[in-house]
Amino acid sequence: MNFPKFIIKKSTNDQFYFNLWSKDEAIILKSEMYTTKQNCKNGIESVKTNVPSDKNYDRKTSDNSKYYFVLKSQNNGQVIGTSNMYPSTSDRDSAIERVKIDVPKAETEDLS
């Protein structure tokens, strides 16, 4: 499997979601649940559209002092992806930079 890559899967409740896998084969962005596969694919396109702009990222700290980011749509502010937790702000910020670089060349694989 080539990375980076969006992978579409189907959940046990028949909804669809995607994960963005990085070059080092780690999940760096997770989607919300979608009721249709087409909406899931639209979510991937929204990620591709919104990743270049730094203003679309909310840098956050969890209750257990881990760091993560949320990618939002520039058009409506809707959350389109949430990252994993990182031990430091520099790790989180490096992940954001990887997303900006990886997403334009990411393929999509449908495993649903």
TrEMBL record:
InterPro entries: DUF1508, UPF0339_domain, YegP-like_sf. It comes from the Bacteria. It holds the Pfam family DUF1508. SUPFAM superfamilies: YegP-like. Residues 12-58, 64-110 form the DUF1508 domain. PANTHER family: PTHR40606, UPF0339 PROTEIN YEGP. This is DUF1508 domain-containing protein. It comes from Flavobacterium aquicola.
